[in-house]
Amino acid sequence: MELENGLRKALEFNQLMLYYQPQCSLTTGEIVGMEALIRWDHPEHGFVPPSEFIPLAEETGLIVPIGKWVLREACRQRKNWSKAGIADFPIAVNVSVRQFEDDHFIEYIAAVLEEMDLDAGLLELEITESIMQNLQRSSYILHQLEGMGVLLAIDDFGTGYSSLSYLNRLPIQKIKIDKSFVQEVPFLASQEMLVKTIIDMGLNLNYIVIAEGIETEHQLEFLRQNECAVGQGYLFTKPLPADQIERYLERNK
Ligand code: G
Ligand code: G
Ligand code: MN
Ligand code: NA
């Protein structure tokens, strides 16, 4: 209850902020995307990790207004970067199933894109496999988003419930290999094989495959050798506030 009230206040009193983590081409090193990740800077307790408050936000439904704030803030930041001449990589926003199931989800996205005067192709939504539990409706929403020009990615791929036969029929461009698989490289041969298999499947089905949670040169090399196109992780940089990301971009031009 205390955390819940705190979260309501956080939204009201601007204690939420977005950090950003680049997605890098594993062939050219170029930055090809940027994931927005929420942070809660609590006035007394300092940073509360999203793993603590996102589940609560989902249970209480607060994820809907929080998710709206995230979308708007991420689009505002992307637009500011465009105005500053910062290369046109899309901004990726995490979307909970609960938000996705909200009747006004599509409307809200359209309204934010219009308000910020942002090209829909600069917004990518990261959804999880759990949306497939309500396949008919999800498919309808995803096709609407595709029609608008919004990019779609499956997050935490391999950890959920997706049925490959359905995945293939959804208008998704990208799959993100969950960091739990990547982090077992090189410690578990079976996980290595799994990562390799996901990459091959992704390539064969024409997805952009991105690996998350890359922390070591060894993991990077393994992913490159197996033709994984894009990577994200502490090896490049941990998530950073917008001003520090701008410096990172400047250094990595
Ligand atoms: O940033 P961090 O690694 O601590 O994120 C932990 C979890 O919180 C991840 O599963 C991530 O997807 C989720 N998360 C981060 N930001 C958002 C957000 O804006 N919306 C939703 N729904 N989840 C988020
Ligand atoms: O669920 P999602 O993939 O959106 O969550 C991404 C989470 O992974 C964020 O909490 C982010 O801070 C975290 N993260 C990003 N890069 C790394 C990494 O290299 N190692 C670890 N352990 N976590 C990472
Ligand atoms: Mn994500
Ligand atoms: Na993930």
UniProtKB/TrEMBL annotation:
Domain EAL: 1-253
Annotated protein name in UniProt: EAL domain-containing protein
Phylogenetic classification of the source organism: Bacteria, Bacillati, Bacillota, Bacilli, Bacillales
Region of the whole protein represented: 484 to 736 of 741
